[in-house]
């Protein structure tokens, strides 16, 4: 009879696992997949482990028509996939013991073993030091299930040693805080907190790409807000963004802001409905310390902070090697986040709809709401519905034509022009006329206006 949990695992993974175990070699599901199954969450990644060496796994795969990616043969890891389902990649790792780590990522020495508990002893946290047999027996030598039940993140063995082996585990621990435990975030064990407080500077040894990936995963967790506050408490943002230090304890001296700047950034990010907007919220006012002025009444002002912040954010995101699309989107949102939606006229709304695009505008609305709530004096954006109504009215089919009633060929014929920049300048001028008054979007009316404009 099939175990109930097994139905949560994709058929491709079940097929590989079943086939491997039929060779009389005990094969285990290990790590995060077991953790998530115990939490009742569908896993995203699947790792198998057995005493087979990488060479044996590769030979087995060739015999059984599985494809192989030699991802980390030196450390016992081989990735497998079925050519009929190439999107499902499954890692197999040889059971192993590890020596010391000197590069902050890989052990200096790896010895194979046939003991699953020895293999689990090398893992980072108790909730990941879990293995499951095909028959459904849980192997849990370090109390991982108990820590899951309590909502605790604790290291396997000595926390200081575990984090020293690979300091990226500091980011991983903070990311796991964002997991859901019966509606609440997870908590860090006191021993783990103490180790992080001592060892966080060692993150400077870790590549920015690995830290970026952990931050991005953190922003996708259910309780990302709590995890962000933990990252700030331990100084992790200063490691990846040295400019962040300028925000810490920065008093804004502004009647519209209740919090010091770094807290405002965290509260704003906390309101984001997507990882992209959470990242934007975290950086949207990063330019304030560089544009700070104080008036005669003692009020702080930040003229030009949006533009300055966009430049700084671009540099920060590039330093972490974010992809170009993310960098473009985040920096554009930061550059425009002070746009005065409440005051602009319908013709201006039509112009920015054309220039910025609807998706960008929709994200800006959300960012405005995040920013207002994150300032600490309001729980909603009072003008939100009014702005949306004015936007919809300005862009309704009756007041905002989908396209101009004329084109470049019309302009060339009327003005006896050849193709070139001048035609484009006329089209831009005509578009501005139509934005101001959509009623004139008629070929004859536009022709008369163009001819009158050259007299």
UniProtKB/TrEMBL annotation:
SUPFAM superfamilies tied to this protein: Nucleotidyltransferase, Poly A polymerase C-terminal region-like
Gene3D superfamilies the record matches: 1.10.246.80, Beta Polymerase, domain 2, cca-adding enzyme, domain 2
Molecular functions (GO terms): metal ion binding; nucleotide binding; nucleotidyltransferase activity; tRNA binding
Residue intervals of the Poly A polymerase head domain: 27-153
One protein family per Pfam: HD
Positions of the HD domain: 276-347
Domain tRNA nucleotidyltransferase/poly(A) polymerase RNA and SrmB- binding stretches: 186-244
Signal peptide: none
Required co-factors: Mg(2+)
GO biological process terms, semicolon-separated: tRNA processing
Keywords assigned by UniProt, alphabetized: Magnesium, Metal-binding, Nucleotide-binding, Nucleotidyltransferase, RNA-binding, Transferase, tRNA processing
Superkingdom assignment: Bacteria
Family under the similarity heading: Belongs to the tRNA nucleotidyltransferase/poly(A) polymerase family.
Protein name per the record: tRNA nucleotidyltransferase (CCA-adding enzyme)
């Amino acid at each position: 009879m099939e175990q109930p949990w097994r139905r949560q695992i994709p058929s491709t993974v079940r097929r590989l696992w079943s086939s491997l175990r039929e060779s009389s070699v005990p094969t285990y599901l290990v790590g995060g997949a077991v953790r998530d199954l115990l939490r009742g969450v569908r896993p995203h990644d699947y790792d198998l482990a057995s005493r087979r060496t990488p060479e044996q796994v590769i030979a087995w795969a060739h015999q059984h028509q599985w494809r192989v990616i030699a991802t980390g043969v030196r450390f016992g890891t081989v990735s497998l996939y079925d050519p009929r389902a190439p999107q499902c990649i499954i890692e197999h790792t040889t059971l192993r013991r590890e020596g010391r780590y000197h590069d902050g990522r890989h052990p200096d020495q790896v010895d194979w073993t046939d003991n699953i508990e020895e293999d689990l002893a090398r893992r980072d946290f108790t909730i990941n030091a879990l293995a499951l047999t095909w028959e459904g027996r849980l192997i849990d030598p370090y109390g991982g299930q108990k820590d899951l039940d309590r909502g605790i993140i604790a290291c396997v063995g000595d926390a200081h040693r575990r984090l020293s082996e690979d300091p990226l585990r500091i980011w991983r621990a903070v990311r796991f805080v964002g997991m859901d435990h019966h509606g609440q975030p997870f908590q860090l064990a006191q021993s783990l907190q103490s180790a992080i407080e001592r060892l966080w500077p060692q993150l400077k040894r870790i590549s920015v790409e690995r830290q970026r990936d952990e931050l991005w995963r953190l922003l996708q967790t259910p309780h990302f807000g709590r995890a962000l506050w933990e990252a700030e408490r331990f100084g992790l943002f200063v490691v990846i963004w040295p400019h962040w230090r300028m925000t810490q304890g920065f008093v804004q001296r502004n009647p519209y802001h209740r919090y010091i700047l770094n807290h405002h950034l965290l509260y704003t990010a906390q309101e984001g409905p997507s990882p992209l907007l959470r990242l934007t919220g975290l950086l949207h006012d990063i330019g304030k310390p560089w544009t700070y002025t104080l008036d005669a009444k003692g009020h702080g002002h930040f003229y030009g902070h949006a533009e300055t912040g966009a430049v700084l954010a671009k540099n920060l995101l590039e330093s972490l090697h974010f992809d170009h699309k993310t960098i473009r989107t985040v920096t554009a949102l930061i550059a425009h986040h002070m746009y005065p939606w409440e005051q602009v006229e319908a013709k201006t709304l039509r112009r920015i709809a054309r220039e910025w695009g609807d998706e960008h505008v929709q994200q800006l609305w959300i960012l405005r709401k995040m920013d207002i709530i994150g300032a600490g004096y309001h729980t909603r954006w009072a003008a939100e519905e009014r702005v949306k109504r004015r936007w919809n009215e300005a862009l309704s089919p009756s007041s905002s034509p989908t396209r101009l009633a004329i084109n470049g060929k019309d302009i060339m014929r009327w003005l006896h022009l050849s193709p070139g920049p001048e035609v484009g300048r006329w089209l831009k001028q005509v578009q501005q006329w139509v934005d101001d008054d959509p009623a004139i979007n008629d070929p004859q009316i536009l022709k008369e206006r163009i001819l009158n404009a050259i007299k």
